[in-house]
Amino acid sequence: MRKLCLLAALISPFACAQVVSVETNSLMRLPNTASTLQLEKLEVADYGTLLIPSNVTEVTVGELRLGRDARIAIVPGEQPLELKISRANLSEGSLITARGAPGTYLKPARSGRNLNVLIKSLNAPKLTVDARGGAGAPGFVGLDGANGEEPGCTWGQAGHGFDGSNGSDGQPGAAGALVRLQVPRDYPAEQIKVQVAGGAGGLAGPGGKPGAGGKAKGCLVYKADGGKSGRPGADGQPGPAGAAGSVTVQRL
Hints:
Layout lengths: L1 H10 L7 E4 L4 E3 L6 E9 L4 E4 L5 E9 L4 E4 L6 E10 L4 E3 L17 E9 L3 E4 L47 E6 L8 E4 L21 E2 L4 E2 L21 E6 L1
Parallel strand pairs: 1-3, 2-4, 3-5, 4-6, 5-7, 6-8, 7-9, 8-10, 9-11, 10-12, 11-15
Antiparallel strand pairs: 13-14
């Protein structure tokens, strides 16, 4: 058994850990070498954060302690996360968050991660879970129109400015998560707060600016008129919000 633990310790410092502690104002990431983790005690001090990777699908904890404004942050992933806790003591402002990731110009927004949370014994002023979807990426900005050519004294006519191109529509927000809570029968329902709203749609891309017409020019014999400016591009439309998730609370 000791040889197995030694081998596991070489792979991951948490493989045989019985107690994991996150210090005040610090961040710790659980190892991503295994999909299932089991801890005797997990303690996150005030304002600390424990990060659970996307490939971890089950975490079992004997005793959980979250300090003031401490959080467990769960990285978005395709598979739901099973979080099983025997005893939990949560301080004011503590949070379990499984929010989706916001979209970018290269990647769409990601949904909140589906959660199944089991807490057999719970002591907390409030149980807060945030599993909202990620916000959509903004639309692309339209290209600016080119400026018109200035007139010459031999041809005497300025070029008109070109129109700006239209901005693109914002991308859709991602869906909120499906959250299932199993908590003690005597824990007050009004102290449970779960957010599963869909992510906001991306902002509309603004239209491109119009190109300026060629400037008027005074010549020896006559004056060359300036050209007309182009028209600005139209703004895109805001993206749609993501679908809301759902919350199921089961009493033990």
